Amino acid sequence: MDIAKLKMLCDIAETGNFTMTANRMGYTQSAVSHSVNKIEAELGFSLMNRTSTGIDLNSSGKTLMPYIRMVVAHYDRMRDVADSIVDLQHGTLSIGTYCSIAAQWLPSILKKYHEAFPNIEIKLYEGGIKEIESRLEDGSIDFAFISWQKNRNYQFITLVRDPLYAVFSKDFNIPEEYKKDFPVDAFKEYPFIALDPTVDNDTFSVLESAGVKPLVCFTCRDDHTIISMVKKNVGISLLPGLFIKGEEKELQTIEVKPCAIRTLGIAFLSEKNLPPAAKSFIDLASKMIKGNEI
């Protein structure tokens, strides 16, 4: 008694019709009837009542059907696991990410993942929010590490909250009243170095929500360029905490008022369509990031 015949029995129980099951499963009506007769002969009792209006399970069939469905479900699950094992032995994983996340989070995660799945090739696509979202939508990446955005069609797993800070050079003379928390409105008072909103629109959204138009003197696409310019006292900026991690000794950073926070996480189009390698990476990354293992 093979699994295909058991699946056929389940379908007949649902349709109550040999012809309909034959059409759904790609058999002829006579092949379905023959298979049922063969199963009944093997079991030693009938499973169905044949009438002019269709097929009904008899008492024996109703008693046995839950176990048949259980066998089919376990078989399908076994096949899914087996396919996952094959997919995790070889393959390619494409990941979109902000540069700051690639630098701060991914090295530790990639190392641990590679130790577990050494034959999975990983391709990183670093870029800004617009580019990454475009790649996500056209399917050229499996998932992405980005910040939460309003009104998007993709799914999003929240990982951490990342505060934004006013950033100054070490020798910048910050007014005493601004040293505890820097009012967002004060960005209008000093030369401002802005990050291109197509790269990261989180800082732009904070300023826009507050109705603030900063005194923008320079616009850059690279956060490292902004940090270098701030260090040289070219201007001040508003940057996420992850951008300035490791630079604290060479900068002055102050929380802004009102408090500004972006939400970082993992975006993907559909969990159902994620390959096993992607699911494994997302599980590992979520565990490591939330557990502060990076």
What do these coordinates show?
By secondary structure, the protein is α/β, with parallel strands linked by helices. The protein folds into two domains: 3-88, Orthogonal Bundle (Arc Repressor Mutant, subunit A); 94-294, D-Maltodextrin-Binding Protein, domain 2 (3-Layer(aba) Sandwich), CATH 3.40.190. It contains eleven helices and twelve strands. The strands form three sheets. Strands 3, 4, 5, 6, 7, 10, 11 and 12 form an eight-stranded mixed beta sheet that branches. The mean pLDDT is 91.
Question: What keywords describe this structure?
Answer:
294 residues, alpha/beta, Arc Repressor Mutant, subunit A, 2 domains, two-stranded antiparallel sheet, 11 helices, elongated
Can I get a quick summary?
This protein has eleven helices and twelve strands. The protein has 294 residues and is α/β, with parallel strands linked by helices. The chain has two domains: 3-88, Arc Repressor Mutant, subunit A (Orthogonal Bundle); 94-294, D-Maltodextrin-Binding Protein, domain 2 (3-Layer(aba) Sandwich), CATH 3.40.190.
Helices and strands in order, then pairings?
Blueprint: H1 3-15, H2 18-25, H3 29-43, E1 48-51, E2 54-57, H4 59-89, E3 91-97, H5 99-104, H6 106-116, E4 120-126, H7 129-138, E5 143-147, E6 155-169, E7 182-183, E8 191-195, H8 202-209, E9 215-220, H9 223-231, E10 237-240, H10 241-244, E11 251-257, E12 261-268, H11 276-290
Helix pairs in contact: 1-2, 1-4, 2-3, 6-11
